[in-house]
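Appendix B: complex inputs.
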Amino acid sequence: MVDYQRTHTCGALRKNDVGSEIRLSGWVHRRRDHGGLIFIDLRDRYGLTQIVFRPTDHPEFHEKASHLRGEWVISVKGKVIPRAEGMINPSLKTGEIEIEVLEFAILSQAKTPPFSICDENITVNEELRLKYRYLDIRRGDVTKRLLVRHRAMLLTRNYLDKQGFTEITTPILGKSSPEGARDYLIPSRIYPGSFYALPQAPQIFKQLLMISGMDRYFQIATCFRDEDLRADRQPEFTQIDLEMSFGTQETLFPILEGLMIEIFNNCKGIKSTSPFRHMTYHDAMDKYGTDKPDLRFGMEFHDLSDIAEKSTFSIFLDELKRGNKVKGFCVKGGTDISRKMIDEHTLLVKKFGLQGLAWIKLKESGPTSTITKFFEEPLLDSLIKRVGAETGDLIFLASAPDKILCQSLDHLRRHLANKRNLIDPTRFEFLWITDFPLFQWDAESQSLACEHNPFTSPHPDDIHLLDTDPLSARSAAYDLVLNGYEVASGACRIYDSALQDKIFTLLKLTPEEINERFGFFIEALKYGTPPHLGLAFGFDRLMMILTETDNIRDVIAFPKNQQAADLMMSAPSEAQKEQLTELKIHIHDQEETK
Amino acid sequence: MVDYQRTHTCGALRKNDVGSEIRLSGWVHRRRDHGGLIFIDLRDRYGLTQIVFRPTDHPEFHEKASHLRGEWVISVKGKVIPRAEGMINPSLKTGEIEIEVLEFAILSQAKTPPFSICDENITVNEELRLKYRYLDIRRGDVTKRLLVRHRAMLLTRNYLDKQGFTEITTPILGKSSPEGARDYLIPSRIYPGSFYALPQAPQIFKQLLMISGMDRYFQIATCFRDEDLRADRQPEFTQIDLEMSFGTQETLFPILEGLMIEIFNNCKGIKSTSPFRHMTYHDAMDKYGTDKPDLRFGMEFHDLSDIAEKSTFSIFLDELKRGNKVKGFCVKGGTDISRKMIDEHTLLVKKFGLQGLAWIKLKESGPTSTITKFFEEPLLDSLIKRVGAETGDLIFLASAPDKILCQSLDHLRRHLANKRNLIDPTRFEFLWITDFPLFQWDAESQSLACEHNPFTSPHPDDIHLLDTDPLSARSAAYDLVLNGYEVASGACRIYDSALQDKIFTLLKLTPEEINERFGFFIEALKYGTPPHLGLAFGFDRLMMILTETDNIRDVIAFPKNQQAADLMMSAPSEAQKEQLTELKIHIHDQEETK
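Resulting structure:
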């Protein structure tokens, strides 16, 4: 039997190991033949070590080494020797030494890979990378991300354990729920015609665990949604899911902030401080047009309605009459934005329904704009002052129904930040968004609908509004936002059955509907439910931010593509007839072509 | 808003907290009215604290408290006071103090539970416990097990991390494999007629991760099998799955032993020492008739064929002529076993095909038996000596084809150990079983079949037997056994494609069959596969042993019953028509009744 039991990894040996007899095993990263010598860069995930085969020492090894090709797996027993002067490679941790071969074995050969493993600078088609994911991981980039992911999972578990949270695994074979996104179904063989469903989240289980008295629960949970995939979605994804009893936002938030600080410090050397900033949903929409503002750059919006009202600019005046606002923001140094670029920005916001974009350039020579003529000078001055503009800056102004205005200006603001390199990629700006609306108006059914879910507690100060003005009632839901991404979302839950009944009444649900839609869970709430609240982190998203990629597939070992297929395994795939017979199901197309 | 933010849990307060103002929140465990005073045992998962309501102090609280019922959730602000002399409860950690109420709020009421939460000594029907699992957990027994489970998972993760293993989550939406048990299938909406399958184990993924160069992988993985359930099976179950590259059994076993020692020491205070005992499969079958012997008691079997051959006992002589063995073992002090009990034991082994059970009692007056007459005295002496029997002992003897003999004597040995209280429940005897057979003979197809899987490496010393006597070849597979249970199973894998081809040839698989059954994985093995080996622990089984229960459902938060149903959620359940339409599947019965 070949001995391949290494004494060191390929990243371990240093100058002070010179003279040691060692054994390394790994992959042939590169072979170089130089004046009779054969150099092998031997690789494992820990590093590279240079192996030297001299024709004189062991001619048989030298001969065998001459056949080595990339990705063959070999084991080498050898002596650590210093590299010759001038041959030292300071960019390699093992760059001061090399290995003189004493014994040598080929463990396994390798076909030529479909893409280079050793060349870092090539771009490989993603479909090909996914098909040969095992080779893609071997290239190193995904490996590094998987190591960060492992580290972050372990940190999370240890941190939450120290905070008194218990990790509890909840079922994957669950029950289909008519709420939310589309479920993946699993036909039951024992109960033909019945189905399990994969969980979209452990929401009901975590609330049940609070009813169980588990007090503080968490889980790094796999969740499933059968949705058409966007770039940053996967059919199966991961959440850090947690819930606590007898707590409030004031006790929960510091715990969660500590978790983020721990992960970002340990995995990325980013020092954040607690407490994180807080902003109400209302303020976020007002100042940034979004409930997940990126705080790494400025350009906050300002309500200019009162100023515009005194102008003679009929477009704004008309919008104001319709009850819409005029908003504007200042682009520092924005006088360099050309008319052509402004036109491009106008096209951008048009996609979101904004009809036009007004602008004022504060040049050395004075304000330039097509609209300044509608503003008397003192009015213009107060406008400039309101948005905090100075000479050299540009002001964008717009008016539209609230939703259009928010969306358009949010996109414009982020677009400008990217274009003008205003984003410091080394900054990590956490932000709590609180006080989300409890309800939204569903125009189709002409009734209230939940913004979050029907178990979310109203804001304690707004319970009186449930009777008078429910659409104005705030909820006790909150999000954690990081650099413009929602990284976590949660809420205080209703624990009082009278309040729960009131919410159902407002949602115009009959007892039958309540039972059908929420069934046993409503029953469970009646046996002594403690106040509880919780939250779920989108763990894949966090990993994307942490490892600086926009591609969710980069942070998952074996992802699906955007058509929910596993290109490596060829899944999904056809089932065997016997399997379907046992499950007592037919497939339509088969039926129809019979 | 009611303040329910506790300062302490219900298990925290001690005598030296006397005088402090505190707030507790929890469930009403019991209410006792005593001479005008109302005592509430307030409970959370950390303990019980006694609350006293005096009619004089706050009459309104006293009045409200008189309405409290079991499982209502309340919050109490109060002062810690010492209990009166004679009222101290030494069995309660908080038994020296009680709480004088300053403020008091009812947070939520509770319906009368379907079974008592506070009475520990009642037995509740398991179906009812599963239906109201959230209340069952609240009773405490399951809670304690879930806390041990959490502790064991965390210890596992930290331990394996320290050993250089990376936790990597592998897909739940996988591909159906014709090998092994029955798969759960998931119809794909995007690819009608195609199905994902839930993984029975991450076997292929972990081998791919070794091919990827991840070096050391682990995962606490949820696995799925659609099998008819035995008492200790669940449709979804948990494995500690791991794999390492460039290692051998000599490097892997100590790592795994360290993990077991860590878990059993931390969760149970059991000190085990490494290395664990080793036994070959051959020796285990020979001495114990099973590949998972319980070593907490003796009664090893002895081959008595050579002695029986010299006897005149025709039953044994006939069996020996058929090539079968005669085996026997000694029951210490077994002369107290009555003829009636021997008859019962004979009935027991009959279930496993053994026709009869011979016995010899070594009484003070000399050996008694119906068969001693067939053995001359020196022969009997050597038999007695062989099995290690002394005066007062009983010897059981039997002969049959190997499989029957092993099964029968194994069951008899364990039955006797139970009956005679030979098992020390505080002992934890780990044992490695190695050198399993590589193949078994499949009588139906008249060909070799794998004992483990076709990727399991032959024992390095037996590779020559592949050509000459493959059924005698041992594999490099191994099990970890604990107190008669298989707790882990693993193997060294084949990494050499020539050897892999040879195994496939022996299994009479054509290239087409290989491709269909193992597909892309065989391709993956060709791109530079390192030597690798691994193992999977049955985590639920481990938790059962650790928390001393025979019921797998006791160690899972929300288990299925033995008909694979979740009685709490009523899963599986009917799907909505629209869901099936989208998935393009019909259900047979619906079809047939149309």
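Chain B has 18 helices and 24 strands.
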